């Protein structure tokens, strides 16, 4: 797992820093995205949790008008079902998005590590979060499938929706 994440980080950083021109952070190409996510657990997670709710935090840089890259984190809390206990996932991931137009449809993917809280003998594992949505200059609304493949054959999956607001860097 550590080798896979190291390779991903190496490729991500190599692509980002190998550009020949200087990177200039402006309100038109970089921003912080803050918002909420809500979903329904699927797979094995649906046996122990009824729904999930969390926060989404991202820092994004537009490489060009169609491609954005950045770092994603936040917290997703899974609310318990029956006699089980609630638990959470704290993702730390690189992400990429493809924007077809300045306003409209986008596709994205988060890839990194999901730290688990509230689950004994398990610190986390590979975090994968593909998403599709609609964006404009200020807002992003998207649907997602979140998957954390952790140690001891624990797989936490959910489908849901998210909304983020863009806060421009100045």
Question: Which short descriptors sum up this protein?
Answer:
Porin; mainly beta; 1 helix; single chain; 170 residues
Q: Major sheet: order of its strands?
A: 1-2-3-4-5-6-7-8
The domain count comes to 1
Global structural class: mainly beta
What is the 3D shape? elongated
- The span between the termini is 37 Å
Number of helices: 1
As a percent range, the share of helical residues equals: under 10%
Characterize the main sheet. Answer: 8 strands, antiparallel, barrel
Provide the residue-averaged pLDDT. Answer: 89
Q: What is the CATH topology assignment?
A: Porin
> In angstroms, what is the radius of gyration?
17 Å
Which CATH C-level class is it? Answer: Mainly Beta
Based on the structure given, which CATH architecture is correct?
Answer: Beta Barrel
Number of strands: 8
Order of helices and strands: HEEEEEEEE
**Uncertain regions spanning at least 5 consecutive residues:** none
Strand content: over 45%
């Amino acid at each position: 797992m550590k080798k896979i994440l190291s390779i991903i980080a190496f490729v991500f950083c190599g692509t980002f820093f190998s550009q020949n021109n200087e990177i200039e952070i402006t309100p038109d190409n970089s921003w912080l995205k803050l918002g909420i996510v809500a979903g329904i657990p699927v797979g094995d997670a649906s046996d122990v949790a009824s729904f999930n709710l969390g926060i989404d935090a991202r820092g994004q840089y537009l490489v060009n008008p169609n491609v954005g890259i950045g770092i994603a984190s936040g917290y997703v809390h899974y609310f318990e079902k029956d006699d089980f206990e609630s638990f959470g996932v704290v993702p730390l991931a690189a992400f990429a998005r493809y924007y077809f137009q300045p306003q409209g449809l986008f596709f994205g993917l988060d890839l990194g590590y999901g730290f688990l809280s509230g689950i004994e003998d398990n610190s986390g594992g590979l975090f994968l979060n593909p998403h599709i949505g609609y964006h404009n200059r200020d807002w992003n609304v998207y649907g997602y499938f979140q998957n954390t493949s952790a140690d001891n054959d624990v797989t936490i999956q959910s489908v849901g929706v998210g909304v983020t607001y863009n806060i421009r860097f100045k």
